[in-house]
Amino acid sequence: MATPELRPLGNALGTEALGVDLSKLDDPTFDWIQKAFAEHPVLVFRNQHLGAGDIAAFGRRFGTPRIHSLVGYRHEEHPEVSWLRNVDAEGNIDWYGVKRATDWHTDSTYEEVPPLLAMLHALEVPSTKGGTMFADMCAAYDALPQAMKDRLAGLVGLHGRTDGPAGARLYDPEEEMRRTDKKYAEQPRPAVINHPVTGRPILFVNPMHTHGFEGMERDEAWQLIEELAAHATQERFTYYHSWQVGDLLIWDERATMHRGAGDYHPEERRVMLRTIVYPN
Ligand SMILES: O=C(O)CCC(=O)C(=O)O
Ligand SMILES: [Fe+2]
């Protein structure tokens, strides 16, 4: 293989991998990607032209791509791939698709086993804006005052589907129930976890799915969740990805939070394919 190269896109995170054709991925190139991804939790491959089956196959290199919780967005032929789009089958604006995921979160931390990574492949993008923002939760943890690190050390976060402070602002719980075909039990997760490859500590609290902490009153917990989210999403820890058609972006579901920027004109089409990968 010709050795690919890395180029930083943002100050905090966001890294472009140059010289990779994901449609012809050999084992040495995949090993290179895995190593790069452990250090660079948002990796972008430009000018890729992949179908849903290719995306699922790329996901299977890392683990097991899984069917998405939102029934209506599953891909017709490859249900482990889903659509992220703001238009319905008739080409009308899908307002749920416009609103979806436009506040900070880490995906599916309410699942019994949390995911490893997710990927988006841009097929149609708005003429301006419509980006996705990412936050580096290792850097955010490192920068916390020691007193907060000590406070978090013993804390266990409680995660649910959309019932954290940001989830409650964004979603209607009854509509969410109608859109999914599974019930989710609350999942306890340490507020600080270690990255399985690098060992670095990660602030693992997100305002969409974390709705409390074991043994803490709700008001105090919500205040803490909001305070941690405000800290972690300061500009110095974040990257705004401006999409180009053909981008395939992968992000680490342990070490980052993300959100749709929600800043484009909804009349413009925004269509992507997505998959989320769990451990085998
Ligand atoms: O719309 C976006 O940019 C973010 C979507 C998202 O949160 C996801 O695909 O997990
Ligand atoms: Fe997401």
Quickly list its features.
280 residues, alpha+beta, Double-stranded beta-helix, 2 domains, 16 strands, 26% strand, globular, binds 2-oxoglutaric acid, binds fe (ii) ion
Bound molecules: 2-oxoglutaric acid, fe (ii) ion
DSSP helix count?
A: 8
Arithmetic mean of pLDDT: 97
CATH class category of the largest domain: Alpha Beta
Looking at the structure, the CATH topology of the largest domain is: Double-stranded beta-helix
CATH architecture of the largest domain: 4-Layer Sandwich
Radius of gyration: 18 Å
Strand content: 25-35%
Q: Regions with pLDDT < 50 over 5+ consecutive residues?
A: none
The outline comes out as globular
Find the CATH superfamily of the largest domain: Clavaminate synthase-like
The total of beta strands comes to 16
One letter per element, helices H and strands E, the order comes to: EEHEHEEHEEHHEHHEEEEHEEEE
* Biggest beta-sheet profile: 8 strands, mixed
Fraction of residues in helices? 25-40%
Task: Describe the structure in your own words.
This protein is an alpha+beta fold. It folds into 2 domains: 5-135 and 240-278, Clavaminate synthase-like (Double-stranded beta-helix, 4-Layer Sandwich), CATH 3.60.130; 139-232, no CATH class. Helices cover 25% and strands 26% of the residues. It has 8 helices and 16 strands. Strands 1, 2, 3, 4, 5, 6, 14 and 16 form an 8-stranded mixed sheet that branches. It has a 3-stranded antiparallel sheet with strand order 13-7-15. The structure holds 2-oxoglutaric acid and fe (ii) ion (FE2). The site of 2-oxoglutaric acid has 9 residues, from strand 6 and strand 15.
